[in-house]
Specification:
Elements: E1 9-13, H1 18-29, E2 33-38, H2 41-55, E3 59-63, H3 69-83, E4 88-91, H4 108-136, E5 139-144, H5 157-176, E6 182-189, H6 195-200, H7 204-211, H8 219-230, E7 240-243
Parallel strand pairs: 1-2, 1-4, 2-3, 4-5, 5-6, 6-7
Helix pairs in contact: 1-2, 1-8, 3-4, 4-5
The structure holds nicotinamide-adenine-dinucleotide (NAD).
Residues 13-14, 16-20, 38-39, 64-67, 92-95, 117, 121, 144, 146, 189, 191-192, 194-197, 219 line the site of nicotinamide-adenine-dinucleotide.
InterPro entries: NAD(P)-bd_dom_sf, Sc_DH/Rdtase_CS, SDR_fam
GO molecular function, one term: oxidoreductase activity, acting on the CH-OH group of donors, NAD or NADP as acceptor
Organism: Tumebacillus permanentifrigoris
């Protein structure tokens, strides 16, 4: 059953494209006022106008690089000051570039970029948002993991390491936050057709070659899962939502080079 919320506020990181963009739209349709963070503010402004036109919700936009501690702190403070509350944090921002090199061709710079975005960025955002959630008596951290954080085959070693870390952080924080009014969920997709998956697979031709054997999920499919988790009643915690194209279900090894 679909629930609607009223007056709640959701932060979406990496909202300028793909799953983040679709989730921002659908969370607004479900009743959330939304705070959009990404490095490309122009794209966020366009999305904000679209959301306002479609839903009438309030939208806050600010430049955000989740790797930068001071930017994260300033962003979360600005959202709290603007809306007076933070109910949902969707840690969606993720990096694909740098997964492509095989281990013998990879370097410290692309390992760091990957782990700083997918892991440290998520930790920074969560650390800043959770106290406001506890103070407000309601919170839900939703992390974009991946089946790469479960099956360890998709996307290369460093990407897998980052997504296993996302799952570990999610499970550990759930324990750490026991007794506090903050829920925590991972949404773990298989192949989704976004800019990210095209980059991850190297180029459009390669991506299409994979897609010929598979009907990938859409960003909207994943946004549906995000909205489902975000709109459950407060006493319901969904630990994880694992969602794959049918062709990947049970396959284990996916999207290999
Ligand atoms: N596409 C897939 O097949 C797939 C599968 C499983 C999980 N995911 C996860 O879903 C999430 C979204 O990916 P997507 O497929 O929508 O790709 P995408 O490239 O369209 O979106 C990623 C977003 O993150 C933003 N971003 C990257 N680095 C950032 C930073 N330092 N600070 C702020 N924003 C930053 C990008 O600008 C972009 O808006 C990622 O965490 C990804 O790992 C994607």
């Amino acid at each position: 059953m679909a629930f609607k919320v009223q007056g709640q506020v959701a932060i979406i990181t990496g909202a300028s494209s793909g799953i983040g963009r679709a989730s921002a739209l659908q969370l607004a349709e479900a009743g959330f006022n939304v705070a959009l963070g990404a490095r490309q503010v122009e794209k966020l402004e366009t999305l904000a106008a679209e959301i306002k036109g479609m839903t009438g919700r309030e939208v806050f936009v600010m430049s955000l690089d989740v790797r930068e501690e001071q930017q994260v702190s300033a962003f979360v403070t600005a959202v709290k000051n603007h809306f007076g509350r933070i109910d949902v944090l969707l840690n969606n921002a993720g990096l694909a570039k740098g997964v492509m090199p095989v281990i013998e061709e990879s370097n410290v710079a692309n390992w760091d970029a990957m782990l700083d975005t997918n892991v440290r960025g998520l930790l920074l955002m969560t650390r800043e948002a959770v106290p406001h959630m506890i103070e407000g008596g309601n919170g839900h951290v939703i992390n974009l993991g991946s089946i790469a954080g479960r099956e360890a085959y998709a996307g290369g070693a460093v990407y897998c390491a980052s997504k296993f870390a996302v799952r570990a952080i999610t499970d550990a924080l759930r324990q750490e936050l026991l007794g506090k009014p903050v829920r925590i969920t991972t949404v773990d997709p298989g192949m989704v057709e976004t800019e990210f998956s095209v980059v991850r697979l190297g180029d459009k031709d390669k991506a299409d070659a994979v897609y010929t054997n598979m009907t990938p999920l859409s960003a909207e499919d994943i946004a549906d899962c995000v909205v489902y988790a975000a709109t459950r009643p407060k006493h319901v915690n969904i630990d994880a939502i694992i969602v794959k194209p049918l062709d990947q279900a049970g396959a284990g090894k996916v999207a290999r080079r």
